[in-house]
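Supplementary Methods S3. Input chains for the assembly prediction are listed below.
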Amino acid sequence: MTSIKFRKHIEEVIAITDKEFDYVFSFFIKKRLKKHQFLIQKGSPVNYEYWILKGLLKTYTIDENGKEYVLQFGMENYWTSDYLAFQNESLATLLIDCIEDSEFLCIGRDDKETICYEVPAMANFFRIKATKGGTSHQQRILSLLTETTEQRYNNLVAKLPHLMQRVPKKLIAQYLGVSRETLSRLNS
Amino acid sequence: MTSIKFRKHIEEVIAITDKEFDYVFSFFIKKRLKKHQFLIQKGSPVNYEYWILKGLLKTYTIDENGKEYVLQFGMENYWTSDYLAFQNESLATLLIDCIEDSEFLCIGRDDKETICYEVPAMANFFRIKATKGGTSHQQRILSLLTETTEQRYNNLVAKLPHLMQRVPKKLIAQYLGVSRETLSRLNS
DNA sequence: GTTTTTATGTGATATAGATCACATTTTACT
DNA sequence: AGTAAAATGTGATCTATATCACATAAAAAC
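Predicted structure tokens for the full assembly:
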């Protein structure tokens, strides 16, 4: 059941009482999208943050020439949104779309603040999650600065081995920051 | 005075009472370092997070060939640490050293947790700060993926114009992920 | 099940940027 | 002030990767 799974996810980070959990959980609503549908589109307001129950997503941008760049892949147990737009109440600069049929728990911006101020444990939950997210972004920056394309590819395979079977190589290339031709030539 | 400045910094994000602030502030200790001294060294334990009162720092790594890569510059009002090591209680993989004489407020790992659980407003403070830090790392990743060296340079100048006068171009190049020769040739 | 779309591999160039090398200027050190 | 060290600019290569082009294979759509 969804609430059990979600509670387990939270309790991996902080302690929470039944009462607190029920209160927190009441603010989340479930959402389903099919493959190719958009969770967030460039230029739209971003009023929700999403916890991914199942599925696979890509968060990306498109430049003036139509070239796409993958910021991140989202999958089960990951949180996602266009956080810049979500926080600043501005319009999305990113797109998030479903690579597979997906399910989410959604929390509105104001409801998230309510939860964090009413249930201090949840402020700590999101604090710790945000800090971990930050360090993983740091690792990605360092990887882009210091590693060769081949090293980045090998590290990605090591980190998310199953991802390779679930997405086209083109998207892996867009994540690594190389052309699909160069990625194709790595393995040979 | 230090505590006034620090309180102002906190109150830009959340509300805090006198009593809470005094309690929180009591956990911080002041530290001073001179130019060229290290705040954090690769291979050492990282038990503190630092708020920069004044000065200028670079956070960087060195690869096997001795090549250096700047993850970020730290300056007044910024928070810094090797967060990966700080959180996991592991050894530093990064180096942080002072480009100018600097002053910090230091908070220990356990004391930070204490503050966050005793003063919920501080959990929200660090949550919001961590989230903002995360989005700025995201922007950096996107910049590395999508922009040319020249665009990245121009954006950095626009974002931190005074930085150019305070650090050698070599460090700017190490931050942008290009050789100093290439950076030098941009302006011509 | 047939057609259309998408993914993938691979050759032939073009190019941004790395690397090496050295000269000059600027800054730091005692 | 005088010397040593660091920063900076610039030429001459070299190289990884982008780009363009096309063929084949695989997957999706009707």
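Chain B has a mean pLDDT of 96. Chain B touches chain A through 31 residues (CB under 8 Å).
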